[in-house]
Design a protein that fits this description.
By secondary structure, the chain is α/β, with parallel strands linked by helices. 32% of the residues lie in helices and 17% in strands.
Length: 579
């Protein structure tokens, strides 16, 4: 009786806690997935920035110093104030490690230069400020009449002076920004002829700098940072007259805003009539410029399709699972453009098909399987190692084709392909994700339509995709080269013993023929520079071209080799300048 009384509560507590922990873990996992899905729907691609307005300000120069040399037996020494250091210059540098503009600050201020000191000690020049941006960023200076532009250094000064009432206050404020006076000598300095002469020289210099700044608006800055140039300094030839042991200067990128010059110390104003000037100049303001940064993904081939057309699965299948794309059953799974690399051998074999992945499931399912394997305590062998059964099953010698580093020997061609967010009706009007990813397609050499062949009307999807591309940028749909009819495996469900329904097979073939006929009749693309074909509005003869249609099953990796070879041909033509 006592044993029953002792064991029963503990057993009940153990069973209750076990069931509660199991239910709690399951609920937490479900809640985590739902929260992640909802967050991805709502974030709208904010973690991937492809357009940014940046206000850049060069560093302010250091002030000059008013000082006189003093030492033993020399109580009245000469002027010894040092000059101020130069403010920080601002550079912009393309960096291959970055893929988004989210790490670029919206306001960039260069460091100020050091102030001059006594005994002829000049201020230290500020270190350069470098803005690192992804490769493929286009940098544009906003025009003078652009409302997004921040005031430059002269406009900011005019705004500050505009709040003052009369000319005497404005002149006093101008002097306050330009001059450093010896203590208790300001009133006497402004009455001296030497100070007035120096003031006129500073005024003429300001007028020239203001005029040069206005001329800069006539030729605004424009940079296309399509390649990384971090090693440009190493490529320059060394000057034969340079001293031995002189180190190489690090390449900092393109100069976008100069720092202000340092102020002059009082020794610079010594003259025959003024042997001990008691004034110096302050450092100049650095340049202020407003830049528009636009990131255009540099991919050879861009995938265009409706949400849930299977673009992410296709990219994963082509790269053998190396591309970290999100695959799920809801729309807008992909919110940021993702670029994958396709490596091809001479015989047409691509690296993705050698990785041994037979089925590409949803991301949540694959993560669950991976966690189960880790909990079970056994790991899979490397994907490039063949099992003994696979080695003995071949009747002919096995060619040494493995993914990863071994594939470097066989690789003869590579190109990049981008998975873009799903395009919906109205995307050209900035509906959905809109312009945030259509810009990334502008620089692709070729576009590939991805449609759901198992859908009700894939031809309607094609028409909508073409119309949206044309509405966003006329002529953009002419880059399309291929139609990938994905999810072909869903048309013909597998029956028992590996047999297929003959009627379903015939219906699938008929649907594919209708899609091909639609592409031939309504998706014809006119290419410029042809000798035969139609004549457009401006009298240029353009040849007619029909896109290829390839049915595939990205989930099971079927018929992908033909897609890779077609894409390879398009990229080769583009690199030769034929597209």
């Amino acid at each position: 009786m006592s044993e029953a009384l002792d064991d029963t509560p503990s057993d009940v507590y153990t069973r209750a806690s076990s069931s509660t922990s199991t239910a709690t873990l399951g609920d937490l996992e479900t809640a985590r997935r739902n929260r992640k899905s909802e967050w991805k729907r709502r974030q709208g691609g904010q973690t991937f920035l492809d357009h940014l307005i940046v206000t850049v300000r060069g560093g302010k120069g250091g002030n000059g110093c008013v000082a006189f040399h003093r030492e033993k037996f020399k109580p009245m020494g000469p002027p010894s104030g040092g000059n101020g250091g130069r403010g920080s210059d601002v550079y912009i540098l393309p960096t291959p490690a970055l893929t988004t503009l989210s790490s670029v600050p919206r306001r960039v201020h260069g460091l100020p230069g050091g102030a001059g000191q006594g005994t002829w000690q000049h201020g230290r020049n500020a270190e350069p400020t470098v803005i690192r941006v992804p490769v493929g960023t286009v940098v544009k200076e906003l025009g003078y009449d652009d409302p997004r532009r921040a005031p430059d250094e002269w406009e900011a000064e005019d705004e500050a002076f505009g709040e003052l009432n009369n000319e005497d206050e404005k002149k006093a404020a101008w002097r306050e920004r330009r001059w450093v006076h010896y203590p208790r000598w300001q009133d006497e300095n402004v009455e001296r002829d030497t100070f007035k002469q120096a003031e006129r020289a500073v005024w003429r210099e300001d007028k020239e700098r203001r005029w040069m700044r206005r001329r800069r608006y006539l030729d605004p800055l424009w940079l296309d940072l399509s390649t990384a140039v971090e090693n440009k300094a190493d490529a320059r030839e060394r000057d034969v007259d340079a001293p031995l042991g002189l180190g190489k200067k690090e390449y900092l990128g393109h100069l976008v805003a100069r720092g202000g010059a340092g102020g002059l110390g009082n020794p610079n104003f010594v003259s025959q009539t003024s042997r001990s000037p008691k004034f110096a100049t302050k450092g100049q303001e650095g340049e202020r410029i407003t830049l528009s940064l636009e990131l255009k993904i540099l991919a050879d081939v861009g995938l265009v399709g409706m949400p849930n057309a299977g673009k992410s699965t296709l990219l994963r299948a082509l790269t053998g699972g190396r591309a970290k794309t999100e695959v799920a059953s809801y729309a807008f799974t992909t919110l940021n453009p993702i670029v994958g690399v396709i490596r091809v051998a001479d015989d047409g074999t691509f690296e993705g098909e050698l990785r041994g992945v037979k089925v590409f499931e949803e991301t949540a399912i694959e993560e669950e399987r991976e966690s189960e394997k880790q909990l079970a305590g056994h790991a899979d062998p490397p994907s490039f190692v063949l099992d003994d059964e696979e080695c003995t099953s071949h009747s002919e010698p096995v060619v040494d084709q493995y993914p990863g580093y071994p594939f470097d020997i066989l690789e003869s061609f590579r190109f990049t392909i981008s998975d873009n967010p799903g395009l919906i009706a109205g995307a050209s009007s900035n509906v959905g994700l809109g312009h945030s990813f259509l810009r990334s397609l502008e620089r692709s050499h070729a576009l590939v339509y991805v449609v759901d062949l198992a859908g009700d009307a894939p031809w309607d999807e094609l028409r909508a995709l073409r119309d949206e591309l044309e509405a966003y940028l006329p002529g953009m749909s002419d880059k399309a080269r291929l139609v990938v009819a994905n999810k072909a495996d869903l048309l013909v469900p597998e029956g028992g013993e590996g047999r297929y329904d003959e009627e379903a097979v015939e219906n699938a073939k008929a649907k594919l023929r209708r899609l091909e006929e639609f592409v031939k009749t309504e998706m014809v693309i006119l290419e410029g520079g042809g000798t035969t074909g139609d004549v457009d509005e401006v009298g240029m003869r353009r040849s007619r071209r029909t896109m290829d249609v390839i049915p595939v099953s990205a989930k099971y990796g079927q018929n992908l080799k033909k897609v890779v070879l077609s894409m390879k041909g398009y990229v080769e033509e583009a690199r030769r300048g034929l597209l």
